[in-house]
Amino acid sequence: MNDKLLHFLGIARRAGKLSLGNDAAIEAMRKGYTKLLLLASDLSPRTAGGVRSAAEDEDVVLVEANATMDEISMALGKRTGVIAVNDAGFAKKLLALCTAETAGAKE
């Protein structure tokens, strides 16, 4: 099911609407660019904690994607577990895809 999510992440990357990696994502959040923050499901607790804290400070929506760092790497061409979405349209669609996956997994 996360094929749609990964495909759409690839489109957003090609459009230049993502900041990839911990440092780049935090910088984009602090500058006010980030509309949504996605975390890989296998991100280390230490990294996730730091990013969660920064997201709370900047009032950015944070979602754990149903995708591992390896899966994200295959879709984006860069190994990362932290993705800042810097476009409202892409953020809305990716949030909907993440929410749909979570709802599907609970059923």
Task: Please provide a written account of the structure.
The chain is an alpha+beta fold and 107 residues long. 58% of the residues lie in helices and 14% in strands. The chain has 5 helices and 4 strands, in the order H-E-H-E-H-E-H-E-H. The chain has helices at 3-14, 22-30, 45-58, 69-76, 88-106, and strands spanning 18-20, 36-39, 61-64, 82-85. Strands 1-4-2-3 form a 4-stranded mixed β-sheet, with helices on both faces. Helix 1 packs across helix 4 (69-76), helix 1 runs antiparallel to helix 5 and helix 2 (22-30) runs parallel beside helix 3 (45-58). The protein is globular and about 30 Å long. It starts with a helix and ends with a helix.
